[in-house]
Every structure is written in C-alpha cells, then in structure tokens.
Amino acid sequence: MVAIRCDERGFDCDYVTTGNVEKVIFDYWDHMSKEHGIDYSLGTLEKYLKKKISAQIPAS
Ligand SMILES: [Zn+2]
C-alpha cells in the first residue's frame, strides 16, 4: 500500500489518499484537477510515486 499526502507536494491541503499504486495515482490526479485546477499527467504522478516507493523500501 502506498500513500500521497497533498502537503508533501507543497500544497497547504490536508488531502491524503492511500491504497494500491493505480488507485492512488488516479485519486490524486482527480484531486489535483478538481481541487487545485492542476492538470498533472498520470505518467508524472506514476514516476513520482514509484520514486517515493523505492526511497521508502530499502533494497534487500
Ligand atoms: Zn490538495
């Protein structure tokens, strides 16, 4: 399970979404579009999330 908090992206906003990668990407993309009027590409969010995941889980 992964999570994106809106404030970790630099917004003064308490939105958070958790779940599997596909859900979080879509939820956050939808939130950015509706609440902040920012049209991120899904690919950009996917890259951000994958980078975040790999930073959180140390390679064994
Ligand atoms: Zn937000």
TrEMBL record:
Official protein name in the record: DUF1059 domain-containing protein
Protein origin, superkingdom: Archaea
